[in-house]
Recover the amino acids of this structure.
């Protein structure tokens, strides 16, 4: 009986605790006393979840938080990877999955909105371009709650979406100095909106002068490329014009870049399956002033290197694409004894000539990868 009464009291305490969290009265002293004096020695675990990074840090992780020192762990949840994306859709083909993923990313709420609709452009029109839908102003909502004054942050993201990726060009484009831009960029990276990338061969990427800033979140990348520039049209409910613009540029100016990310994500699984002697240490993009390679994968001892090309084209890939990749690979200096492998990912497949060539070229692997 005593045990049952104790469990009931614990449940009441937990309910009061959660109610105070829900009412945003986290700072109340009696909340801490309740945890420290009543619940601390019970078999109770409280899990707090939140999508606003700054709020979670301030309320639970920072030194000034009443919960500082009381947590037993924290997990920074990532978005759902593309390899698991198909689990949300029963009947969509691979081509449709890539298109949907390029807009929703791995955010379950966005996926939930897009799931019932087969046509990607109809889904965009209904869930993003409509002023009644919360995705219409979702990036504004997120930034206002994370950083407050959003003007400079918006200008930076807009500049990157327009093709300015170096810090100097970003700063010049929005009219501030580089040191001023740095703090804004750092905040946006902490919020998982941006990321800074360097050529995969860089030995000290933190100090590299070749760093590029890119939009990490698929939805925000889409929104700043196709929604924000046409807000005036959408405010006048001229959505047909905006949809027309999206249709014109969707694959070449948006999906093709997401496709590269997907191919890099899948690389580890493909190497372990098809190149068992290749020990993967790291992979990413590589570039210099004149050349860019979609994928370069390195092994720890520099005994092997893989060069990859990702083609989201409607045409079949032919031998000229392979020879062009080999030509670009010569720009990256390797040891003489380093074994070179090549991989080509294609949405639309390969010509018979390239298929036959791959049978002879033992270090060339073709992936008809459309999802």
């Amino acid at each position: 009986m005593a045990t049952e009464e104790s469990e009931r009291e614990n449940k009441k305490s937990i309910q009061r605790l959660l109610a105070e969290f829900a009412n945003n009265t986290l700072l109340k002293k009696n909340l801490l006393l309740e945890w420290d004096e009543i619940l601390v020695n019970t078999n109770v675990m409280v899990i707090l979840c939140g999508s606003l990074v700054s709020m979670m840090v301030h309320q639970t992780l920072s030194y000034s938080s009443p919960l500082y020192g009381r947590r037993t762990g924290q997990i920074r949840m990532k978005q759902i990877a593309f390899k698991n994306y198909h689990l949300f859709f029963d009947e969509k083909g691979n081509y449709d999955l890539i298109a949907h993923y390029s807009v929703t990313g791995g955010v379950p709420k966005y996926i939930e909105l897009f799931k019932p609709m087969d046509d990607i452009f109809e889904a965009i029109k209904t869930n993003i371009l409509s002023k009644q839908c919360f995705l219409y102003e979702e990036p504004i909502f997120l930034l206002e709650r994370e950083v407050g004054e959003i003007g400079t942050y918006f200008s930076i993201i807009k500049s990157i979406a327009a093709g300015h990726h170096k810090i100097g060009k970003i700063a010049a484009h929005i009219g501030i100095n580089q040191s001023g831009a740095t703090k804004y960029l750092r905040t946006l990276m902490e919020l998982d909106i941006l990321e800074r990338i360097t050529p995969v061969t860089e030995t000290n990427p933190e100090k590299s002068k070749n760093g590029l800033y890119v939009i990490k979140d698929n939805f925000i990348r889409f929104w700043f490329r196709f929604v924000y520039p046409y807000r005036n049209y959408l405010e006048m409910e001229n959505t047909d014009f905006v949809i027309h613009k999206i249709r014109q540029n969707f694959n070449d100016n948006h999906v093709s870049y997401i496709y590269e990310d997907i191919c890099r994500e899948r690389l580890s699984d493909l190497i372990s399956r098809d190149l068992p002697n290749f020990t993967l240490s790291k992979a990413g993009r590589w570039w210099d002033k004149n050349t860019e390679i979609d994928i370069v994968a390195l092994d720890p001892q520099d005994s092997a290197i893989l060069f990859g090309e990702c083609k989201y084209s409607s045409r079949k890939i032919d031998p000229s694409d392979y020879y062009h990749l080999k030509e670009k690979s010569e720009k990256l200096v390797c040891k003489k004894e380093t074994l070179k492998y090549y991989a080509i990912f294609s949405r639309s497949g390969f010509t018979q000539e390239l298929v036959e060539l791959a049978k002879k070229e033992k270090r060339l692997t073709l992936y008809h990868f459309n999802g």
